């Protein structure tokens, strides 16, 4: 939980971030100490929300080529880097007929044998979006009598799919704007740390590839609630996030370290119980109506072999070997467990209690590094954690540049653009995966350095200079002053 008082001045990035300082020279130099508005964190938050809207809009423009032809051109969706899962799942998972994703009706399951393979939060959202889509379009065709493989070609279906995507995207935009506002308010003296989220190229490129922004909002809410000393709300946000994507669960490891360091057993219990209760409440309707369909998310991921973006896939292609799904599962979870153990030791032995964003970033990054798949939009999992864990533009640009390289390469790889001229090897794709991994390891290394040497961490320096803790927080052992 934060130790920064509410009434401190807002820190100007042009006075403490080297990249921003250099850029500010073209508009008059760094902000002066007595400039108007330096105490208005909410003004900064409003600006960041506006910048987020611009970034999101740029991402939509970048997807225009695919939107115009309803993602029907298989080559264009890869060469133009505008692929999205949304349009295809509208007809393939029953949303075009407003079928409940967890229906056990034999006729529904015969017609749609492939169940929605995502956690319940995404399924609920997509199902609700299908109702909004039908309310807008009012389809009057007899699609129930048509084979599902022909639904895509029905008259008017292209427009309906475009509306479906637009309905989903409106919600994604709201999630991105609210996440930006929450990140800006996590540390009232440092709202501009969220600028790397608001202006993120990763956000623009991957925001509508899948439904991951819903989980990003939950993570941003958890970071905000934890910083404000609200453990119950923190747990609820993590529970809702876990019901939407699994990875928010991993932030409980960061909460554990912080609570053990500061002996906040009540807060630990509150976060854990509230999170578990929120997850159960959200999952219960799906489990009650279709327990087998509910379990598909778990079985789908367990049966998945080495897949896109992972080091496992690179190994299978480079060495021309097959690795069974069971083998990958065992080794990836073993490596992730060892990684979490390392984060635990780091957090407990650090000179001062690491921030939740730092611990959460390290845990989630470790999961993505050893996981058997790295879909392009998974960069969003790290984004809110990364911008608060290491609020320096240089480091953010290095990391996100590596992610952009991978984003471009994965679509060109799927489009067959990266195959070597002499055969089927794809060395440029392997290189892109390694670049992505190197970028993540670089940011991991910088965050670990900040944890071990807190005088290098700009947020820790701010906390050390801020004074007493926020009113209303339970007392905690004093943190050591920063020293070299």
Automatic annotation (TrEMBL):
Superkingdom assignment: Bacteria
Spans traversing the lipid bilayer: 41-61, 161-184, 196-226, 232-256, 268-288, 333-350, 356-375, 396-414, 426-448
Coiled-coil annotated residue ranges, if any: none
Subcellular location: Cell membrane
Pfam families associated with the record: GT87 (PF09594)
Chain intervals with Pro residues compositional bias: 474-484
InterPro entries with a match to the protein in the record: GT87 (IPR018584), UCP010361 (IPR016570)
Topology in membrane: Multi-pass membrane protein
Region feature (Disordered): 465-484
Primary localisation category: membrane
Keyword list, A-Z: Cell membrane, Membrane, Transferase, Transmembrane, Transmembrane helix
Sequence similarity: Belongs to the glycosyltransferase 87 family.
Name recorded for this polypeptide: Glycosyltransferase family 87 protein
Organism: Nocardioides eburneus
Source taxonomy: Bacteria, Bacillati, Actinomycetota, Actinomycetes, Propionibacteriales
């Amino acid at each position: 939980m934060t130790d920064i008082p509410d009434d401190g001045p807002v820190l100007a990035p042009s006075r403490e971030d080297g990249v921003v300082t250099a850029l500010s020279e073209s508009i008059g130099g760094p902000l002066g100490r007595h400039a108007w508005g330096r105490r208005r964190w909410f003004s900064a938050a409003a600006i960041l929300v506006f910048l987020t809207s611009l970034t999101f809009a740029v991402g939509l423009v970048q997807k225009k080529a695919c939107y115009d032809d309803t993602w029907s051109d298989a080559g264009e969706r890869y060469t133009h880097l505008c692929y999205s899962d949304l349009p295809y799942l509208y007809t393939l998972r029953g949303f075009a007929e407003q079928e409940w994703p967890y229906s056990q009706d034999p006729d529904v399951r015969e017609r749609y044998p492939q169940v929605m393979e995502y956690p319940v939060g995404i399924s609920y959202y997509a199902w609700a979006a299908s109702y909004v889509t039908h309310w807008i379009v009012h389809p009057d065709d007899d699609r129930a009598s048509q084979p599902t493989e022909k639904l895509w070609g029905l008259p008017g279906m292209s427009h309906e799919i475009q509306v479906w995507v637009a309905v989903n995207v409106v919600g994604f935009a709201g999630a991105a704007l609210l996440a930006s506002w929450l990140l800006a308010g996590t540390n009232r003296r440092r709202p501009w740390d969220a600028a790397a989220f608001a202006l993120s190229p990763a956000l623009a490129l991957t925001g509508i590839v899948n439904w991951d922004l819903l989980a990003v909002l939950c993570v941003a809410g958890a970071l905000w609630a934890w910083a404000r000393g609200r453990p119950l709300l923190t747990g609820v946000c993590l529970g809702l996030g876990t019901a939407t994507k699994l990875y928010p669960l991993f932030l409980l490891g960061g909460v554990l370290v912080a609570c053990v360091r500061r002996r906040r057993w009540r807060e630990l219990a509150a976060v854990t119980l509230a999170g578990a209760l929120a997850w159960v409440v959200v999952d219960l309707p799906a489990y009650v109506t279709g327990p087998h369909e509910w379990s598909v998310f778990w079985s789908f991921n367990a049966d998945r072999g080495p897949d896109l973006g992972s080091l496992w896939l690179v190994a299978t292609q480079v060495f021309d070997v097959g690795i069974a799904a069971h083998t990958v599962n065992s080794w990836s979870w073993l490596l992730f467990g060892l990684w979490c153990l390392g984060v635990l030791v780091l957090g407990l032995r650090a000179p001062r209690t690491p921030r939740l964003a730092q611990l959460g970033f390290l845990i989630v990054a470790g999961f993505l590094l050893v996981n058997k798949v790295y879909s392009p939009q998974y960069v969003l999992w790290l984004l809110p954690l990364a911008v608060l864990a290491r609020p320096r533009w240089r480091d953010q640009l290095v990391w996100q540049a590596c992610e952009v390289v991978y984003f471009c390469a994965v679509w060109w790889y799927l489009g067959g653009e990266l195959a070597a001229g002499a055969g089927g090897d794809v060395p440029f794709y392997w290189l892109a995966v390694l670049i992505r991994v190197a970028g993540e390891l670089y940011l991991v290394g910088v965050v670990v350095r900040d944890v071990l040497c807190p005088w290098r961490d700009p947020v820790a320096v701010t906390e050390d200079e801020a004074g007493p803790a926020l009113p209303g927080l339970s007392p905690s052992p004093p943190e050591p002053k920063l020293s070299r």
